[in-house]
Recover the amino acids of this structure.
């Protein structure tokens, strides 16, 4: 007579190695005081000394930021590509990883348009004088996002994303399973059943 067992009961007596770790870890990169309309206005008026806060003032900063990214890519001979619509970022990253010969570094920089929260200017009128003035408001827009796909000696593949529009928030994505796999490899151990890195967002 056979006694039925659950999958958990069968595996409990047969597990030789168990690893607990974080799969994907997303870290948001931003300046807290620049996440509100009032904070943005204070930055342009108090910090930069402009009489009025306006999104027009963001344009030269954005162009300088983009130029810095392009100069960095050119100086270090890092491919700067535009993701095609519907293209899976992980497939592109896997191809670059397959041909990367270094132990760590930037594989490539990818550019993609994404809808995000932004700050814009709308005109308002003084009810007493009738004079118009700019006013910062929150809105949404399609903005270029720059993805830095990299490999780290300890953490393995990761990406760091920056928005090209003020206030240039970012996101870092790393993988705990890749870290565990590389740590085990460094000790000469074999880690079975580890997950493959997936860059898809």
């Amino acid at each position: 007579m056979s006694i039925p067992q659950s999958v958990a009961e069968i595996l409990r007596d047969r597990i030789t190695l168990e690893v607990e770790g974080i799969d994907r870890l997303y870290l948001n990169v931003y300046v807290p005081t620049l996440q509100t309309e009032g904070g943005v206005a204070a930055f342009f008026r108090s910090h930069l000394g402009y009489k009025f806060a306006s999104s027009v003032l963001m344009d030269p900063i954005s162009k300088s930021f983009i130029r810095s990214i392009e100069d960095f890519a050119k100086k270090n001979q890092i491919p700067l590509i535009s993701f095609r619509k519907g293209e899976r970022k992980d497939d592109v990253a896997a191809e670059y990883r397959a041909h990367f010969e270094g132990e760590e570094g930037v594989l490539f920089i990818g550019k993609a348009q994404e809808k995000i929260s932004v700050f814009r200017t709308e005109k308002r009128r003084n009810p007493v004088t009738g004079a118009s003035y700019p006013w910062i408001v929150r809105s949404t827009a399609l903005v270029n996002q720059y993805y830095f796909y990299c490999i780290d000696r300890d953490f393995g593949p990761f990406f760091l994303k920056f928005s090209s529009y003020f206030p240039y928030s970012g996101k870092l994505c790393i993988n705990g399973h890749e870290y565990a796999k590389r740590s085990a490899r460094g000790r000469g151990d074999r880690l079975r059943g580890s997950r493959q890195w997936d860059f898809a967002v």
In short: Helices lie at 7-12, 37-47, 58-75, 89-99, 176-186. DSSP finds five helices and six strands in the chain.
